[in-house]
């Protein structure tokens, strides 16, 4: 048996600059395949930027990223992006209906998404079936985020990047999403990386956690590390968040 | 018309200058520059045309067209400064539009292959193409900026750059074509087109002037559509890199 850990995404000495501004600093680490990893850290730490790198929307200025042990640049960008699904916190919608948005990934691939399939997806993310024909402009922030997750799931990604999905959700929706994340992970073996501001959730649901600050990966390991952080900065951050 | 009577026409420049001053519109400087430029440029063109018609040689026609395309490119490129290689894309577009329209006109013997026809028609075609390029580039660059999120959303879901930019491209093409299509609907009702008016004043038969104007109108519609679409399809790939990432 190969004792090596199965890595979904691995970073080695990854830095990202926006012009002369360094946004990510020498990130080295990996996300375990088939697990739920939470990504936490103060605003502006570079979490969203890290996701954009994984989905191939941007490339590292320095360092390498591998997805399933293959260099990210070896993938066809469209194939990579379908396989490493991204649902951003902004939950950008194209104008039109919820159905139009759910169809989008299939339309882009020249395929169809039936209304039945779309309805199943909606119920999966905890939305009502008859939302399908609603205009996206009529949705609440939480509903948009759910539609955004459903839309990303249409591509059946092997790795799912969820950006701060719960921050604009109420308690009930948050529980829905929690259950959804666990189900996607357990039933389909999808690797999930989840940016959250809720540390209790991170401890409860995450197998692993990454703590990022000012563009650096400060501490990572099993989620329980949030209970007893070694790094002084992480300690302060955790105390500030949990209280 | 003598130069003396023409100088009396400067009264028509004094009126807007006066209005701009009293109403503090701040347009005096631009008005004066525009007036001086138009006098110099048009007079120069007049003398050059006299020479070209008299010389009656193909090379001079070609030189005139090159000059027009150079000037049009110079004017339009500022609007597309954010698009890499915009200068050459404009040149290619103008050359193509010019070749297409003259090819059809001369090929089908609609107009004779003479300087007297080729030069003014080329001027209108290239001038129109330039205006369209500016309208298109203005709108396209604005659309790209305001739709960055949507463009990246489509990319992030596995769309190609072409799919990602499609909406911005179509919107900009449509928007740039609206003014010309709209103005053609009311043409003749509200205003007589400049060229036709000019011909009638110079003593041409109105019906012949109308026929000629119609030809020009159709020509300009083709020019407009071809310009926007061609420029659009030449431009959008430079917004992305080979990794299908939207550049800043
Ligand atoms: N497109 C961009 N252009 C310039 N700077 C950017 C851009 N995107 C992000 N940044 C900068 O990069 C840094 C990291 O941003 P990022 O969005 O990755 O942080 P984050 O951890 O996701 O924050 P938040 O928790 O607020 O979402 C910030 O300083 C931000 O200002
Ligand atoms: Mg973020």
Automatic annotation (TrEMBL), chain A:
Presence of the UniProt keyword Manganese in the record: no
Alphabetical list of InterPro entries matching this protein: AAA+_ATPase, ABC_transporter-like_ATP-bd, ABC_transporter-like_CS, P-loop_NTPase, PstB-like
Pfam families from the UniProt entry: ABC_tran
Taxonomic superkingdom: Bacteria
Keyword flag ATP-binding: yes
Domain ABC transporter: start-end pairs: 9-239
Keywords, sorted A to Z: ATP-binding, Nucleotide-binding, Transport
Gene Ontology terms for molecular function: ATP binding
Stated name of the protein: Phosphate ABC transporter ATP-binding protein
Organism: Oceanobacillus luteolus
UniProt lineage: Bacteria, Bacillati, Bacillota, Bacilli, Bacillales
């Amino acid at each position: 048996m190969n004792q090596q850990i199965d890595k979904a995404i691995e970073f080695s000495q990854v830095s990202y600059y926006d012009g002369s501004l360094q946004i990510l600093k020498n990130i080295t680490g990996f996300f375990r395949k088939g697990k739920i990893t939470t990504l936490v850290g103060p605003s502006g730490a570079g979490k969203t930027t890290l996701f954009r790198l994984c989905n191939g929307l941007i490339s590292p200025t320095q360092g390498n990223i591998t997805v399933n042990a293959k260099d990210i640049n070896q993938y066809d960008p469209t194939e990579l992006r379908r396989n490493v699904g991204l649902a951003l916190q902004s939950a950008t919608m194209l104008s039109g209906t919820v159905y139009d948005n759910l169809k989008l990934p299939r339309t882009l691939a020249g395929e169809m998404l039936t209304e039945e399939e779309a309805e199943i997806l909606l119920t999966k993310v905890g939305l009502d079936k008859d939302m399908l024909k609603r205009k996206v402009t009529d949705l609440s922030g939480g509903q948009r985020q759910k539609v955004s997750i459903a839309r990303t799931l249409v591509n059946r990604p092997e790795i799912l990047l969820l950006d701060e999905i719960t921050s604009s959700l109420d308690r009930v929706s948050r529980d829905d999403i929690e259950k959804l994340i666990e189900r996607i992970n357990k039933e389909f073996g999808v690797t999930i990386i989840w940016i959250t501001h809720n540390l209790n959730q991170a401890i409860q649901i995450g197998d692993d956690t990454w703590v990022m600050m000012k563009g650096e990966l400060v501490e990572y390991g099993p989620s329980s590390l949030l209970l007893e952080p070694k790094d002084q900065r992480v300690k302060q951050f955790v105390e500030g968040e949990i209280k | 018309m003598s130069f003396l009577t023409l100088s009396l026409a400067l009264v028509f420049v004094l009126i807007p200058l006066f209005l701009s001053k009293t109403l503090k519109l701040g347009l005096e400087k631009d008005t004066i520059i525009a007036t001086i430029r138009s006098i110099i440029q048009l007079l120069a063109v007049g003398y050059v045309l006299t020479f070209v018609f008299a010389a009656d040689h193909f090379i001079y026609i070609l030189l005139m067209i090159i000059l027009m395309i150079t000037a049009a490119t110079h004017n339009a490129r500022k609007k597309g400064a954010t698009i890499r290689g915009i200068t050459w894309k404009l040149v290619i577009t103008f050359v193509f539009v010019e070749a297409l329209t003259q090819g059809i006109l001369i090929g089908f013997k609609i107009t004779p292959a003479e300087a007297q026809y080729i030069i003014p028609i080329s001027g209108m075609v290239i001038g129109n193409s330039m205006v369209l390029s500016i309208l298109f580039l203005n709108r396209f660059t604005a659309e790209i900026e305001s739709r960055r999120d949507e463009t990246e959303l489509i990319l992030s879901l596995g769309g190609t750059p072409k799919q990602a930019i499609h909406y911005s491209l179509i919107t900009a093409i449509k928007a740039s074509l609206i003014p010309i299509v709209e103005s053609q609907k009311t043409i003749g009702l509200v205003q007589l087109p400049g060229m036709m008016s000019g011909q009638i004043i110079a003593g041409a038969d109105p019906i012949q002037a109308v026929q000629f104007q119609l030809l020009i109108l159709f020509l300009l519609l083709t020019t407009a559509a071809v310009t926007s679409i061609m420029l659009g399809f030449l431009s959008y790939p430079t917004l992305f890199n080979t990794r299908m990432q939207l550049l800043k």
